[in-house]
Amino acid sequence: MGSKPVENLIEEASDGVHFSGLHLNGVAEKSSRENKKTVSAKLELPRQPFVIGVAGGTASGKTTVCDMIIEQLHDQRVVLVNQDSFYNNLTEEELLRVHEYNFDHPDAFDTEKLLNCMENLMRGQAVDVPNYDFKNHKSVFPARKVNPSDVVIMEGILVFHDPRVRNLMNMKIFVDTDADVRLARRIGRDTVDRGRDIKGVLDQYAKFVKPAFENFILPTKKYADIIMPRGGDNHVAIDLIVQHIHTKLGQHDLCKIYSNLYTIYSTFQIRGMHTLIRDAKTTKHDFIFYADRLIRLVVEHGLGHLPFKEKQNGDHMTTNSNLLMQFFYFMHLCLWNPGRATKIKHMESYHYRSVYTGVEFCRRLCGVSVIRSGESMENALRACCKGIKIGKILIHREGDNGQQLIYHNLPKNISDRHVLLLDPILGTGNSAVQAISLLLEKGVQEANIIFLNLISAPQGIHAVCKRFPRIKIVTSEIESGLNEDFRVIPGMGEFGDRYFGTL
Ligand SMILES: Nc1ncnc2c1ncn2[C@@H]1O[C@H](COP(=O)(O)OP(=O)(O)O)[C@@H](O)[C@H]1O
Ligand SMILES: Nc1ccn([C@@H]2O[C@H](COP(=O)(O)O)[C@@H](O)[C@H]2O)c(=O)n1
Ligand SMILES: [Mg+2]
Fold this sequence. Notes:
Layout: H1 6-15, H2 26-34, E1 50-56, H3 62-72, E2 78-82, H4 92-96, H5 111-122, E3 127-133, E4 138-146, E5 151-155, H6 163-166, E6 171-176, H7 179-192, H8 198-217, E7 226-229, H9 235-257, E8 261-263, H10 268-277, H11 284-303, E9 309-313, H12 320-336, H13 338-343, E10 356-360, E11 365-371, H14 378-384, E12 390-398, E13 402-409, E14 418-422, E15 425-426, H15 430-441, E16 449-456, H16 458-467, E17 472-478, H17 495-500
Parallel strand pairs: 1-5, 1-6, 2-5, 6-7, 8-17, 11-12, 11-14, 14-16, 15-16, 16-17
Antiparallel strand pairs: 3-4, 9-10, 12-13
Helix pairs in contact: 1-9, 3-9, 7-8, 10-11
The structure holds adenosine-5'-diphosphate (ADP), ligand L45E5XJ5 and magnesium ion (MG).
The site of ligand L45E5XJ5 has 12 residues, from helix 3.
């Protein structure tokens, strides 16, 4: 993998331009990829943080959940921005009648200030977040200095309410805790931490907190990606969320280094399928089922990277309604212009010409599977590309570095084709390098190779991308690393053995 360890490469890349497949909008992402050469020029574009929104009713456990996520993300730079910090300061008059003030209405917050603060953080600038005092209902000095970070968590009862705030979020979590539990916790917290008396807490709850929950907070639950029951007691959900963030950040960094590395969009469905195929207890039947689902997604994604030509379907297209119109027009001519009507022999002459502008698939392509595990991907490729030719390469592994190419059978005219190279696991990258070298020897253009796999280890990515910067790698997950046996961890055994049942 070269002389520098992975962490150094990531660190170096973090200093310069970031090729984020996750957080930049389409335009920014495209221009970053197009300007790959500017990496060396070290343009100081801001890092786009992974923004998580955490909403939910009062005392549902939002702050507790955020603290737990932050604790578990100990190796990442994470900051918390509380919506509470952006409460409007009360006027003297409002302070005198504070019991009549509705702190649960969206207007109680200075949302412009929150947005401004978030925009600065996303531009890579440190911000001063007000320090709100719940006892005196106002911000106090000094403000809290918040530095730009990899992950920004925005937490508060109404963070999903304003679409401008909501749209900044990459992940939205709604903490869904039973109303009675919330009221009991709120009484406890407000009397102990916020200097309130029980009667005041109950009056405020009945008058403002409960109605606002129903009118403003609960309706935003529909925007959540994750609805989290039981708040901080839900350790499984917290683990999954933390793992997902880790995956996103890991992929993020390697995708920034290599603009030819593509990961399919990660969803909990996809993570769930990975969780199953990575479990030694998963039955053969389930292993094949979920591996096939993942393979199909990767193959479809890979095909999306093939070139295409614009194509127009210039055929006549007729709908029922215009057939009816044509019939009436024909009858009209028969009555009023029989001469013209007789000239018309075919109804088709009246069809409205409609053109569909689409694209044409690239036809000059073939698959090449690396025997044996790569053969597990052939069916998905055949299902997507009718009649596709698939060649094979057998590489024998001697120890961990000695790879020996011992057999190949490749489609004719492979040099004219785009090649989809199939191997579900990219580990050290040694086999992939051998296979790609063979394809290049056979005259295939490096830029015409798309390497499809399910799991890529960083070592393999560095090995392949550095040596063949023009090939594309499409994967469904970037692994954290390899174990001492050069296997992906946590281990799934030999993919081919598990898929073909030859354990
Ligand atoms: N799972 C839990 N079990 C017991 N108490 C909890 C739990 N989660 C939160 N609390 C307590 O309930 C109160 C409200 O929790 P907090 O996280 O501040 O909620 P929120 O930020 O949603 O208002 C706090 O006093 C907190 O210590
Ligand atoms: N001066 C204030 C400001 C806010 N509140 C209440 O705080 C709740 C929001 O904070 P959570 O941690 O519970 O989400 C909200 O329901 C307000 O009623 C307050 O009492 N006094
Ligand atoms: Mg809170």
